[in-house]
Amino acid sequence: SPFPQKIEFLNEINKLILVSYYSQSFAVYECGEMIRWGPVSLGKASTPTPKGLFFTNWKSKKTYSTVDSTWVLEWYFNFANFDGVSLHEYSLPGYPASHSCVRLFREDAYWFYYWADQWILNANHGIQAYGTPILIYGDYPFGGRKPILELEKNNQILLQSNELLSEQLKPYLELIFNRQKEREEAIRDIDQKSRILP
């Protein structure tokens, strides 16, 4: 894996998805321990995947692209609702080729579908609690040599160091932790109300 097995400063973060544009790969962490990683294909130069912090929203086992209705998107998990950007199964050519989504192998998309959390909406369809945090970061050398082709010369080239990840995550850690607490409180409230109802 290009990602570290353990990230100490994430010990209190229940769930987190990291996606590196440069290495075209993802890693999933629970309380600082990496539990899964794999390849992705992010947005090509003309339709880049938005970078920054997002939270998983809603999901569908099968939906159709808003760009081309003939494209079937399976194991779809949205994380940018108004832009229609998501994690989903689709072909992985080894470089950024999507229309801004995060393409995954089928088995990874299926796994995310059941592992990641959906948002919780209130009675007015506003967000009561956010889903699983996903951070997309880094740059890809569009027009240049693909980083994956450099592995033969330098097998460390795709590595995502703890220092790099700390730099990328530091601005968002407080928000991630606060939304995690809000989610826990929302789930407790829902649980208590369900016990009261006949």
Task: Write a brief structural summary.
This protein is α+β, with helices and mostly antiparallel strands and 198 residues long. It has helices spanning 106-115, 162-169, 173-196, and strands at 16-20, 25-30, 33-39, 52-55, 59-64, 72-80, 85-89, 102-104, 120-121, 127-129, 133-137.
Radius of gyration: 17 Å
Beta-strand content: 25-35%
| Spatial sequence of strands, sheet with the most strands | 3-2-1-11-4
Order of helices and strands: EEEEEEEEHEEEHH
Count of DSSP helices? 3
Query: Runs with pLDDT <50, length 5+?
Result: none
Q: Work out the number of β strands.
A: 11
- On the 0-100 scale, what is the average pLDDT? 94
What does the oligomeric state look like here?
single chain
Instruction: Kindly report how far apart the N and C termini lie.
Output: 50 Å
Q: In terms of structural class, how would the helical and strand content be classed?
A: alpha+beta
- Main β sheet profile: 5 strands, mixed
What general outline do the C-alpha atoms trace?
A: globular
Instruction: Classify the helix fraction into a percent range.
Output: 10-25%
